[in-house]
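Q: May I have one protein plus its fold?
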Amino acid sequence: MATDDDSGERLRQAREHAARLTRLLDFARAGENGDDTALRRLVTWLAGTLGGTVTLTGRNGEPLAGTAAHAAVEERAGKLLHHVAGGRLHAAAADDRHGQLRLVAVGRGAPHPVLAAGLPGPFDEQAAALLTHAAGVLAPLLRAREAAEHRRSAEHAMACLRLAVFQLLMGGEVTLAQRTAAGLAPGLLDADTARVIVLEQQGHRRDALLRACEEATGGRALTVRCAAYDTQVIVVAPTTDRGTPGDGGGTAPAAALRRITAGRPGVFLGASSLHPLSQVGEAYGEAARALAVARFRPDRVAEHSTQTRLAELLDPAASRAWAARVLKPLGALPYHARTPLLATVGLGLEFTAVNAAKILGVSRNTVRARMDRAATLLGADLADVRARAVLHLALHLHATAPAPCPAPGEAPPPAGLGRLLASDGLRAWAGELLGRLTADDRDLRRTLRVWIAENAAVEGAAARLGIHPRTVREHLRGAEHLLGRRLVPGGGDLYEVVLACAALAEVELGSGPGRVPCAATVHG
C-alpha cells in the first residue's frame, strides 16, 4: 500500500516531468524558423537536466550540437551509432567504464540524425523518457533547419544570378544580360533605358535593406548587393520613358526606394539620370557620385545633378570627332576584346582596381592588365589625374553618340581639346562653377589648383602651399560642399573640375607630372 510520502514523491516527479516537457515545447516554438540557436540551447539544457553529456549528429554523421566531443561518442557507441543512424535500430544503449550511453534516432527516414546522451550511471525511467521526448522535439526543429538551409541556398543562387546579370551590364554585354535576366523574371530588362540607384546603410544591416528594396520594387528592378562596398545595395530600375524619379511614369521603383530612405534613418540614396542599358556603367558612376552628395543632404537623397555639365557645352560634331580620334587605337581592336576593355577602363577611371574588379566580377590583376593595355595603346600615363580626366571625357562622348561622318567633300571638324575648351560658353560655365569657391573665406580655389597640379597628392600640395596636409583635406571637403561634386577619391566629378580649371588656364593639361594621353589631340 502506497504511503503519503510515496504519493508526494510521485506527484513531485510528475510535476517536474511536466515542467521539463513544457520547456521542450518552448524550444520547439523558438526553433520554428530553422534557427540553430534553439537547437543548440535545447541540447545544452538537456545535458544539464540529465546531469551528463549530450550530442546531436546530422544525417551524414556531422556534429550539429553537443556538450561532448563527437569522436568520443563514436568511440563509446561503436557500431551501435551506425545501426541507429542507418535505421536498423530506433534506439540503443551501451554500458562501459564511463557509465551508460543511450542513442535515439531523430525523425523519420534513414539516414537519421542521432541524439546521444551519456550518464555516469544507468538511466532511470524519467531520464529515458525525457531523452525520447527531446528526440521528438528535435525532429521538427531539424526539418525546419533543413528547410531554412534549402531556402538560403536558393536565395544565394538567385543573388549570384542577379549579380551576374549586373556584371554583364557593367561589362557592356546587354543582350547576354537580358537573356540571363529572363531566369529571374521574364522581360525584366526589356526596356529602352534604366536608372541606377545606390542605397547605403552602415552597421551590418544591408541584408534587411536589400529585402526591403526587393519587396518595394516588386520584381520590376534588378537588385543586388554591391560586390565592392559591403554597406551598399544597387538597383537597376528599367523604364521605357523619360520621367523623373517619383513621378510614377515608369519610375515607380525609384519612388518606392525614396520612401524606404525616408522611413529608415541612416539610409542614403544616390540616383543616376536615365541611360540606355548599354550605359549602365556610366549610370552607376553617376549614382555613386550622387550618393556622396546625399551624405550631406538633410533628406539623405541626391539625384545626379540636372545642372549643366561640361560635355553638354562642347560642339557636338567637333567633340565627338575628337573623342573618336583619341579612342581610335581602342576602336581598332576586335569586338570581343574591345567591349570588355572599354568597360574596364570606364570603371577603372571611377574606382580603384580592387573595387572595379569586384564590380565586374574579375580579378584585380585583370583590371590592371586591361588598364595597362589601354594606356599603352593610347600612349597615356593613366597615373596622371589630368590624363585620366581627358580619357574620361573621351569615353563619355563616345558612349553618348558615335562621331558623325562628314559629308562628301566636307573637311572633318578640328579635333583639338584645347579649342573645344576655349569656347565662350564653356569658359563662362567653368567660371561660374569655380567661382562658387569664393563663398568660403579660405583660398579653396588655390588649394584645389595646386592639388590637381600635384596629381591629387595631398602631401605634395601641402608642401607647395606650406600648410599641413590636414588643412589641405579640410579645404578639399569645403570645395566638395560648394561645388556639389565629389573630389576625393576621384572619379567623374573630379575630372570635370580638372577640365574646368584647364578651360580657364588654371591647370596645364600637358605639363607634368606624367604625360597626358594622346598629346597631339589635347591642344587645338
